[in-house]
Predict the 3D structure of the following.
Amino acid sequence: MPEECDVCGETVPFSATVHLIVNTQSDAGTFDRYVCRSCYDAELEPVVG
Ligand SMILES: [Zn+2]
């Protein structure tokens, strides 16, 4: 099942996505993001650790 990357908008195979559960630290609570591996490596890994 393909997923759309939340960063670049590209449709990528599920196996190539990273599922993130983002905690907003606010009343909005948490939400799910799917990003492709390259975006995860480039942009998100330093943020989420
Ligand atoms: Zn991407």
